[in-house]
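Reopening: structure tokens for the zinc ion complex, inputs below.
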Amino acid sequence: MLNNDCVFCKIIRGEIPSSKVYEDDVMLVFKDIEPKAKVHLLAVPKDHFKLLSEADDGRAAALSHMLSVIPSVAAENGCAGGYRLIINQGDDAGQTVFHLHIHILGGEQLPW
Ligand code: AMP
Ligand code: ZN
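Re-run output (same inputs, fresh job):
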């Protein structure tokens, strides 16, 4: 299910533009609009939920699929030298978009 007020749902529906690098039935990967590394992609499920704690079996399967696809998408988009995945969860992590997303950061040596 998508959400009418969510920026990532709007991107999934094509209502606002994005720089897509990968799409299938389950997920979309696009460039972050404010990149925090030379390569900064966002992988999102085509299902609106905020937290891993909301993942039922179907959502867990979608997340597993995303993790299986991310290595090749990352390698093909400038992260052959490695990359970092981040999933911000809730206020203390600074989550600003309440549609679960996996940050893919790379393209350079990342500071820890
Ligand atoms: P988070 O802080 O984990 O919720 O990250 C949300 C990310 O979404 C930030 O890195 C934003 O730069 C990014 N973002 C917000 N709006 C857009 C957009 N329209 N297109 C691409 N990335 C976006
Ligand atoms: Zn959404």
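The chain has a mean pLDDT of 98. Helices lie at 7-13, 57-76. Marking as resolved unless the reporter disagrees.
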